[in-house]
Amino acid sequence: MAPGDFWRTAESQGGSLLADLVHDLSQPFEIEQDDRLGLIYEWRDAALCHFHEDIQLCRWVVITEVGDWIAFYSESV
Asked: Which residues, in sequence order, are CB contacts of 50 under 8 Å at separation 6+?
């Protein structure tokens, strides 16, 4: 599925992934140095973390300095 099709399908089914992403990217971020990826930019909202079994899940976005998307997790709590 092409990215545009994915976003349209998610939004048409009542999902708020794109709105969540816009919100997350407008928040403060941290810059980390990764040995393999170089500089990475990370947005994580601790207020939107929850536990599933023994794993803590948080809404977060990680993008490299050159613009490669490494992660986007946005399960609504």
From this structure: 56, 57, 77
For every one of its 77 residues, what pLDDT tens digit does the chain have, with 9 covering 90 and above?
Answer: 787 787 788 788 887 777 878 888 888 899 999 999 999 999 887 677 777 777 777 778 899 999 998 887 766 44
Both structure tokens of 25: 């990217």
Question: Would you say 32 and 39 are in contact if contact means Cβ atoms under 8 Å apart?
Answer: yes
* Nearest partner of 20 among 41, 48, 1, 46, judged by Cα: 48
Contact 17, 4 (CB under 8 A): no
- Specify which residues 50 forms β-bridges with: 57
β-pairing, 69-73 vs 38-52, is: unpaired
